[in-house]
Amino acid sequence: MTMYVVGHKIPDSDSICGAIALAYLKNQIGEAAVATRLGELSPETDFILNKFGFEAPALKESYAGEQVYIVDHSEVTQAPDDIAQATIVGIVDHHKLGDLTTSTPLECWIRPVGCSNTVIKMMYDFYQVEIPANIAGIMMCAILSDTVIFKSPTCTTADIRCVEALAEIAGIEDFKALGMDMFKVKSAVDGTPARDLVLRDFKDFDMNGNLVGIGQLEVIDLSVFDAIKSDLEADIAALKAEGNRHSVILLLTDIMKEGSELLVVSDDAELTAKAYDKASVDGRVWLDGVLSRKKQVVPALQQVFA
């Protein structure tokens, strides 16, 4: 039976590139697999796939009765809506362990590294499967994206070594320059509807029964948001109401200044003061040194809701 390899809802580059890379690996070791996706490509992911000659994986939202290999998450809120009716055969991830459960044994590759594609590179090494140049290229780009070109506190020595090895396979001499090109694509926000920006990299988290939505936009200069920040704030307020969420937070991350401005709409006016010891003013707060949603934003919030 063919398995479907799929990342989370509102997929980022790690989810899409990881699904493609893992499906190829599985097929090479005799396990039939097809890469799929749960949403539209971000501009950055589209840039990566075009550069290395890939089509987007097929959009597939229903998996009832299918075998599924989960990439880049283990949260029910981020998985296919009918995941409870599917058979999860494996998980590859680099986040905290979520609330997905299974009725049968499964393969798990979960490591505290900066990117799922770093873990997938370890899987290629374990199975001694040669990585094609184009797949190495997209894996490398996904790691550069997730680690913010090694600036993120989630970045490990393993991520750096994997990028160096994948760059050599892909024939990329200056991978940091390519990483900057990717973030320039991310920084192009002119003319994009506020809702599209808010949902570009957005995840819902169940925090002790409270639904908290957290989006992130990583750019090389926060001034690109000056003219549209009020539109973004209005949209996260609407998103909160539409989804009956306790809170919605949008991180506007400046990768050059290495910090994030948080736009916050919450039922708790003191949420950021409790989580980060810094109160928001008119729904905004700057957190110096904060680049990672996974490591620096989510854990502190979960402590508030514990």
TrEMBL record:
Keywords of this entry: Hydrolase, Manganese, Metal-binding
Molecular function GO labels: inorganic diphosphate phosphatase activity; metal ion binding
InterPro entries xrefs: DDH_dom, DHH_sf, DHHA2, DHHA2_dom_sf
Alphabetical list of Pfam families matching this protein: DHH (PF01368), DHHA2 (PF02833)
Its EC number(s): 3.6.1.1
Domain of life from the UniProt record: Bacteria
SMART domains assigned to the protein according to its UniProt record, in alphabetical order: DHHA2 (SM01131)
Catalytic activity: diphosphate + H2O = 2 phosphate + H(+)
Domain DHHA2: 179-305
GO CC annotation, single: cytoplasm
Cofactor(s) needed: Mn(2+)
UniProt name for this protein: inorganic diphosphatase
Taxonomy of the source species: Bacteria, Pseudomonadati, Pseudomonadota, Gammaproteobacteria, Alteromonadales
